Amino acid sequence: MGKVITICDIAKEAGVSISTVSRVLTGNARVKDDKKQRIQEIINKYDFHPNQLARGLIQTKTMQIGIITADVCNPYYSAMFVSCEKAANSLGYTLLLSDSFGDRRKEFELLEKMISQRVEAIILIGGLVDELVTDTEFAEKVNLVTNQIPVIVTGRLDGTNCSRVNIDGNRAMELVMEYLISCRYKKIAFAGGSPTVKFTAELRAAYHKLLKSYGFSYNPAFDVPNEYYDENGGYAAMTQILKEKERPDAVIAVNDLTAAGVMRAATEHHLRIPDDIGIISFDNTYIAPLVTPQLTSVGYNYAEYGETIVKNAVAAISGDGVPHETLIEPVLAVRQSCRVR
Description:
Layout: H1 7-14, H2 18-25, H3 33-46, H4 52-59, E1 64-69, H5 75-90, E2 94-99, H6 104-116, E3 121-125, H7 136-146, E4 151-154, E5 163-167, H8 169-182, E6 188-191, H9 198-213, E7 223-224, H10 231-241, E8 250-253, H11 256-268, E9 278-283, E10 296-300, H12 302-317, E11 325-328, E12 330-333
Parallel strand pairs: 1-2, 1-3, 3-4, 4-5, 5-11, 6-7, 6-8, 8-9, 9-10
Antiparallel strand pairs: 10-12
């Protein structure tokens, strides 16, 4: 007796998601002609006819999208979730949020749980998709998921066909350096961030390149990573920087929470901000205007960011083509933590 062909087999052979095959089976017009023809040829090849139970499942849309984030307490991730939820709601979808708490194994478990909840797509923000070197086991797991439903990521996941929505890290650092140079800062440090995280690595590489292009020498003592993207990580990095005899006149923090720790360490060392030292950061979350002095930060249009992610997910659900990668333009928000020298 030959193998029983399932909708999963049809989707795999056609190179599409299960939801796309479902739309062909139910006569949904929102499938491109070339895909529809390819799927129909495979259906005819195997004389495939879903049973009544399967057909009932095919026709039931949950209108739910899963979103897995690394740390919803981090203001960047919470801002991202809110923007995605608003965008999803406007399109008639509900988001199911899960937090991996930065736990690798939990990310695997959450993928399984999302599938069991019958979400129509999954969005991955932070965690393993942020790693500079792709976790091959996780990529294989995601590939199994994409045989059933679309997966959208912020970051990178080599070896998968996930659509990516990312911040233009090079342009973000360019904005920071252009602004600091316009304020006549010359000894510029970079505090925080792990070298294993993709976006941080992009920022750090751009920092090195731009120092050189502006004619400044690179001082390793001014470039201090830290694996913790919070106030404590920023405080530790800045404390290390200030141990050196030569001190910077400006510090770039990897995010707003890190900047809060940088500012605390600077104040404890009797440095006035911005009179003695300038501080600038990334993300422009609600933290930036709350600290004293208010923090100059490069942020992003979070509404546009979330809308792009969700629209790509919905387009993929519908079987429409989505870009392999979309870059979000950063925007500088000038406040009081830097000044012209």
